[in-house]
C-alpha cells in the first residue's frame, strides 16, 4: 500500500470517529429530551467563597448548546488542519488526538448535564 493511500485512509478514519463523537453528543440529548424538565441546569459555578451557583436555562438551550459547540468546534479545527502544514505523521496524530479529546470531553459534559437534570 502506498504512503498516500495509507495517509488518506488514516485521515478518513479520524474524520469518521470525530463525526461519531459529534453525533453521540447530539444523540444523548435527543434520546433524553422528552424526559428532561422544561427548565434545565446548564452550568454550575463555584465561587471564591465555596458556594455553588447554578445557571438555569430552557430545555432547548440545555439540549442544543453542547452539540452545537461540538459541530462548530469540529468544523473550526478541521479547517485549521486543512490550512496548516502537518508534515510529520507524529504531528498529524497529535493534532487528531487533541481534536478527539476535545470532542470526547464535550460528549462527556453533555452526558453529565443530561444525567444531572434527569436525576
Task: Quickly describe the structure.
The protein has helices at 3-32, 59-83, 89-118; strands at residues 39-46, 52-58. With 119 residues, the chain is an alpha+beta fold. It starts with a helix and ends with a helix.
Explain what you see.
With 119 residues, the chain is of the alpha+beta class. Helix content is 71%, strand content 13%. It is built from three helices and two strands; from the N terminus they run αββαα. The chain has helices spanning 3-32, 59-83, 89-118; strands spanning 39-46, 52-58. It has a two-stranded antiparallel sheet. α1 runs antiparallel to α2 (59-83). The longest helix is centred in the first third of the chain and has 30 residues, at 3-32. The N and C termini lie far apart (52 Å). The mean pLDDT is 84.
Give the distance, in angstroms, between the N- and C-terminal Cα atoms.
Answer: 52 Å
Average pLDDT, all residues: 84
The helix content, as a percent range, equals over 70%
Q: Radius of gyration, Cα only, in angstroms?
A: 18 Å
Determine the strand fraction and express it as a percent band: 5-15%
Identify low-pLDDT runs.
none
Kindly name the structural category.
Answer: alpha+beta
Largest sheet descriptor:
2 strands, antiparallel
Number of strands: 2
Order of strands, main sheet, comes to: 1-2
Shape: elongated
Along the chain, the helix and strand elements come as HEEHH
Secondary structure tally, helices: 3
Amino acid at each position: 500500500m502506498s504512503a498516500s493511500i495509507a495517509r488518506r485512509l488514516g485521515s478518513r478514519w479520524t474524520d469518521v470517529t470525530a463525526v461519531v463523537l459529534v453525533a453521540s453528543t447530539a444523540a444523548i440529548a435527543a434520546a433524553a429530551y422528552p424526559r428532561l424538565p422544561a427548565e434545565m441546569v446548564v452550568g454550575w459555578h463555584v465561587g471564591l467563597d465555596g458556594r455553588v451557583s447554578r445557571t438555569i436555562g430552557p430545555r432547548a438551550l440545555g439540549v442544543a448548546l453542547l452539540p452545537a459547540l461540538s459541530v462548530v468546534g469540529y468544523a473550526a479545527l478541521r479547517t485549521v488542519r486543512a490550512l496548516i502544514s502537518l508534515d510529520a505523521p507524529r504531528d498529524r496524530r497529535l493534532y487528531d488526538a487533541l481534536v478527539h479529546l476535545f470532542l470526547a470531553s464535550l460528549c462527556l459534559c453533555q452526558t453529565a448535564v443530561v444525567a444531572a437534570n434527569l436525576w
